[in-house]
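W.,

You were right to be curious about this one. When I first looked at the sequence I had no strong expectations either way, so I just let the prediction run and decided to look at it fresh. Below is the sequence, 144 residues in total, followed by the output.
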Amino acid sequence: MRLLYTESLVRRGDIREEEAEAALRDFRARLEAAFASTQDSRPPAPILPREPAGDDAPPSPPTGVPRPTLDAILRAISSYPEGLEVHPKLDRVLQERSRMLAQDSVDWATGEALAFDRCSSREPPSGSPARTRAAARSRSGTRC
């Protein structure tokens, strides 16, 4: 394609053949220089993880959820009303969720669903803004 276009320009008299050859040499030289510059570069050094904090770090709070609670949440998020026709793909996902927890293994999506349900069903810690607002609403008789 380049050759046809160059010949067309020369025939029309827009450029001389020497100018076309010089432009081609210049273009190839630029390509070679760019290629050579990439060959000289090295990949960036990997970012290594920092060393964990020493013994002065505060202990982690307990985050476990009792197994019966997880089972109850999973039953709630993987069931549907009697007589409802569920899409076969969704039905397969819901059945797989039950099998995973029975095998003590859950995928990311199921873990998030369990955590979300657990967090949304818990009462906020005392003194938290959410608990303070809830107490104020209950005293005033308003509901959200």
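Here's what jumped out at me. Residues 17-40 form the longest helix (24 residues). And, maybe more interesting for your project: The radius of gyration is 34 Å.

Coffee later to discuss?

I.
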